[in-house]
Amino acid sequence: MSALIDGIRKNRFVVFGRAGMDMFADPPGTKAEFAQNFRSDLGGSSANICAGLCKLGAHSALVTSISNDCVGRFCTNRLRHYGVDTRYLRVLDGEHRISLAVYESTMEDFQLCIYRNNAVDFQVTEEDVDRVDYGAYGALITAGTVFAAEPSRSSTFRAFDNARAARVPVIFDIDYRPYSWPAPDVAAEVLSRAGAQSDLIVGNDEEFGFMAGGIDKGLEKARELAAKPGRIVIYKMGQEGAVTLCDGKEIRTGIYPVTAVKPNGAGDSFIAGLLAGIAEGRDLRDAVLRGSACASIVVSQPGCAPAMPTSEQLEDFLATHPGPTSA
């Protein structure tokens, strides 16, 4: 585990996956179909992780493809606004498009509509990933959506090989989105393969259960993956908190209850807070709790990237919140 922790403590991350535009109904509480106004900002799981890391004082660079149009340029500008390194973005002409998410800030019958036809981020090539200077980073992060289609699937597995050659640990957010995949059995096989090649794996009970063939088997799947020496697996259970598995130990942690206005963005913020906590030298339990606090902050506010907390906002939240639930 020391190589993984040492890599994270460098606080420099190269992140693979999608950027997108979020449009969320305004004001909060408005159902999307009745909205007259929408706010826009950066979205996409990997882009959100990048923004969250930067707001917590880390360096992050995003490796992806974006469309050569106004939406692609919007996303590039918002990445730069949050301090994300965009040197590895590749701009594509043609009919591939950057993803768009339309949602609302209300938990009542929450609706999220994602447009992913001809997704441009699936066009990342092996040439793209070979351009990355892996030795400049402490860890590689990827979200599972990159594996849903070619050429990004093969390209990201090549990036894993490149990272291992450079002795850079791999962090894998399972992030299973059924609509992106051609078939469930393909997803289960590919995501399991990615997990087997990763040093830190983060997912929820449904995602581990999917990989195992049943939600009742999810925790055993997490334990199986955590059996490899030096690997950390974090098994998230929503309102029930999380189980962190490493070195034969299981660390159970709770959540920070808040009044949520939406469910999305929590997982991305959790990873940013977790990694920033480890980078600051905190122990694993404390880092997981800081990730949970970041997740609670994000679901209590509209938007995803704009709701990611800064270091100061995280400290204020922790100082004023009664504390996490018991695990």
Provide structural commentary.
With 327 residues, the chain is of the alpha/beta class. It has one domain (2-320): UDP-N-acetylmuramoyl-L-alanine:D-glutamate ligase (3-Layer(aba) Sandwich), CATH 3.40.1190.20. The chain is 36% helix and 21% strand. It contains eleven helices and 13 strands. The protein has helices spanning 2-8, 45-55, 70-81, 126-130, 152-165, 184-196, 205-212, 218-226, 266-279, 284-299, 311-320; strands at residues 12-16, 20-26, 37-43, 59-67, 89-92, 99-103, 112-115, 139-143, 170-173, 200-204, 232-236, 242-246, 249-253. The protein has a nine-stranded mixed beta sheet, sandwiched between helices. It has a four-stranded mixed beta sheet with strand order 3-2-6-7. Helix 5 (152-165) links the parallel strand 8 and strand 9 (170-173). Helix 7 crosses helix 8 (218-226) and helix 9 (266-279) packs antiparallel against helix 10 (284-299). The protein is globular. The mean pLDDT is 97.
In brief, what are we looking at here?
The chain has 327 residues and is of the alpha/beta class.
